Amino acid sequence: MSGKNTGKLAEIMRRGEVLSTECPSREILKHVTSQWGVLVLVALMEGTHRFSELRRKIGRVSEKMLAQTLQQLERDGFIRRVSYPVVPPHVEYSLTPLGDGIGRQVEGLTDWIEINLPKIIEAQQMQA
Amino acid sequence: MSGKNTGKLAEIMRRGEVLSTECPSREILKHVTSQWGVLVLVALMEGTHRFSELRRKIGRVSEKMLAQTLQQLERDGFIRRVSYPVVPPHVEYSLTPLGDGIGRQVEGLTDWIEINLPKIIEAQQMQA
DNA sequence: CGGAATCCAAGATGATACTG
DNA sequence: CAGTATCATCTTGGATTCCG
Question: Closest nucleotide (CA of A71 to C1')?
Fold first, then answer.
């Protein structure tokens, strides 16, 4: 491929760490690309939401999975959870700056799929 | 579709179809963001690979899951599978133009994670 | 309302053995 | 080499119930 340590370092920096089984990025990737993680991030790109708002917006997600996903993404520093000590409870979820960053990437992915959906479906049917 | 609302159509086109529970894009998204789907796409962004090459490159993926993932992505039109009728068998996998398109998006996501990994880990530890 | 806890069904994943 | 088949297991996901 190329020279000594500078070349190797450059290569690592450029990409490919996710393909390292030990790299922590692989874990983060799992959280982000999880079934509901993607949709939560996309939904929150439009702004702050309450728990039930997210549930309705995403659709067909159980309370359990939504709660679990939110906690996961909160631990990774992508989501900020603000709880107001009122009754009935009021909790708001929003993206941190970090969350907004990854949200853009995820949105890039989902937007691409939506835009190219016709081509994809066409490709699927070619083989059937 | 009903035909009296251009505004609604515009909104749908802009984004948010993945948040529609019925939209086929949600299925595609699932394939692409699957545990191994992401890694396969990233790996293939570097060029054509054989089955065993992919397995080694991705690491810790069972034959079964790799085969299953490859078939899935092939059906979606993202991957081209070329089999040479020789013995021992020789099969090559590569990205279609469509696959390259989504590969770029996925790579954008993985690259972002790798670049921001320090920040993410820092954010995680802030809460611990 | 926003969850936590529990139980249960279903699907994802893996290890192994086998085949063309 | 590139899978397929089988079985065992582990994780997901959902429904339900209860609580602050």
Answer: C3
Across the interface, do B42 and A19 touch by the CB < 8 Å criterion? yes
Convert the pLDDT of each residue in A40-85 to its tens digit: 999 999 999 999 999 999 888 899 999 999 999 999 999 999 999 9
Say which nucleotide is closest to residue B68, CA to C1' distance: D3
Size of interface A-B (CB pairs under 8 A): 148
- Nucleic acid strand D within 7 Å of A60 CB: yes
Long-range pairs of B50-55 with CB within 8 A, sequence gap ≥ 24? B50/B90, B50/B91, B50/B92, B50/B93, B51/B91, B51/B93, B54/B93
**Do the chains contact at B109 and A110, CB–CB below 8 Å?**
no
Per-residue pLDDT of chain B (128 residues; tens, 9 = 90+): 444 445 554 444 555 678 787 788 888 999 999 989 999 999 999 999 999 999 999 989 999 999 999 999 999 999 999 999 999 999 999 999 999 999 999 999 999 999 999 999 999 888 77
Q: Is A93 left (phi over 0), alpha (psi -120 to 50) or beta?
A: beta
